[in-house]
Design a protein that fits this description.
- With 431 residues, the chain is of the alpha+beta class.
- The protein contains 13 helices and 14 strands.
- It folds into three domains: 118 residues, no CATH class; 105 residues, no CATH class; 105 residues, Sandwich (Immunoglobulin-like), CATH 2.60.40.10.
- Strands 6, 7, 8, 10 and 12 form a five-stranded antiparallel beta sheet that branches. The protein has a four-stranded antiparallel beta sheet with strand order 11-9-13-14, with no helix packed on it.
- It is elongated.
- It starts with 6 loop residues before the first strand and ends in a 13-residue tail after the last strand.
Length: 431
């Protein structure tokens, strides 16, 4: 976007490219508002949809369920059928871990690309690691951590390392959408025969009136097969209610629906719902907690949008002096040596011209005008010269430094120039 990656955290050059926008260190307020709006947005989504991030969008879950778990099933077989897979177990295990390593190696390089860019990364992978040891060590550390995570630690990351699960008790309420077990329909649980077809059944043949069943089969719909526990990646029993370990992946819903199909019961014994709905309460989407979250998010995101839209096309700053505060020229004028920092925020080249509208003030620079590439910043020395008689009795004077560009910037900076104290008899000020 705009000739740059959509997302690039360019730490060496201190730039953050974010979907066509380039944030610099001076854009810290915008970056802080972005992070704040993301966190508050997560709070609002959690209050409304529960842990939908954990189950459907978190990289830990996405990589685990859509990449590493299918690789594992390819080599070891489906869950519950591993003992039926024939062949040399040692060879299968070795091939599985080699595949894990190659996939993780690619992802580690992909993570590095977010910080250095794809072009730089492609150049590095064809060079010796000794030519870029720092980046290679970062990639190697990422490779090691991801190998440990997806090869061994797995869901323990969600239970032990991630703080989000422990925060959900404060973020959720009784009306939040969660994976729920219908206690009123499922209990008392126990094994039962397949439900017979009858006129009381629905068109799909799944809903059956318990009145036509023998007394021994008048149990709840849960047959206590424990498939919901077996398929759960964190090993919990969803029938015990909302638990910190539940990541909302809905695998227990799929497993239970498959069992309900086999026994001729209606689907949805385990489903997405809320504690309030399960208790028979009226559903309410808007509630004080959600209104507060959305209001705060709208304020943060709106302020960030305004700051992005009103950013100047360039940045100009006068930096502190280096060396003596002033010196006198051979012609008797007073000179102040300062530094001027220019930043071109535009996506095209810009020419900066420095001058002073103050009377009797001259500006001297090594190069004036200065041409900067898109996103380039440069700091260069600048000399402000003024007549000694134009200084105040205290040896000071405020001057204006004007910076103009061909991209539309025109900014005046006030600079407090210093000079020798005027010792003329009768003059005001210190003697």
């Amino acid at each position: 976007m705009g000739g740059r990656p959509a997302l690039l955290i360019d730490l060496p050059n201190r730039k953050f490219h974010f979907f066509g926008q380039t944030l610099l260190p001076t854009d810290t307020p915008i970056f802080a508002l972005l992070i704040g709006s993301v966190f508050v947005g997560i709070f609002a989504v959690t209050a409304l949809f529960g842990r939908i991030w954990c189950g459907w969008a978190c990289p830990q879950t996405v990589y685990m369920e859509f990449l590493y778990r299918p690789i594992e099933r390819f080599f070891d077989g489906e869950p519950g059928k591993k003992q039926k897979v024939r062949g040399a177990a040692g060879v299968r295990k070795t091939l599985k871990h080699i595949t894990f390593f190659l996939v993780t190696l690619y992802i580690a390089h992909l993570a590095l690309a977010y910080f250095v860019g794809v072009e730089t990364l492609w150049k590095w992978v064809r060079q010796s690691p000794l030519e870029h040891p720092g980046a290679f060590l970062v990639m190697a550390a990422t490779l090691g951590l991801m190998t440990f995570d997806f090869g061994y630690f797995r869901e323990q990351t969600c239970l032990i390392a991630c703080p989000y699960g422990r925060m959900q008790a404060a973020l959720l309420d009784r009306k939040s959408l969660i994976v729920s077990y219908d206690v009123r329909r499922g209990e008392p649980r126990g094994a039962k025969k397949r439900a017979p077809r009858s006129p009381a059944a629905s068109e799909e043949g799944l809903t059956v009136s318990l009145d036509i069943l023998p007394d021994a089969d008048r149990r709840g719909d849960c047959i206590d097969c424990r498939m919901c526990v077996t398929t759960c990646p964190t090993g919990i029993d969803i029938r015990e209610g909302l638990q910190m370990e539940c990541i909302g992946c809905a695998q227990c819903i799929d497993a239970c629906d498959a069992v309900m199909d086999k026994v001729g019961r209606e689907r949805g014994l385990i489903r997405y719902s809320s504690q309030a709905r399960m208790a028979g309460e009226r559903a309410r989407v808007l509630r004080p907690r959600l209104v507060i979250y959305l209001s705060v998010w709208a304020g943060l995101f709106g302020l960030m949008t305004v700051l992005l839209a009103t950013r100047p096309v360039a940045e100009v700053a006068v930096l502190p002096r280096i060396g003596a505060p002033f010196y006198e020229t051979p012609s008797g004028d007073v000179a102040n040596a300062i530094r001027l920092r220019l930043v071109n925020r535009k996506d095209v080249e810009a020419t900066f011209t420095v001058s002073s509208p103050s009377e009797g003030v001259g500006v001297t620079a090594e190069a004036n005008p200065v041409r900067l590439e898109p996103g380039e910043s440069r700091t260069f020395p600048l000399t402000i010269t003024m007549a000694r008689g134009s200084m105040s009795a205290r040896g000071a004077r405020d001057v204006l430094i004007r910076v103009e560009t061909d991209t539309g910037l025109a900014e005046d900076l006030k600079f407090h120039a210093l000079g020798p104290v005027n010792r003329t008899p009768g003059a005001k000020g210190p003697s």
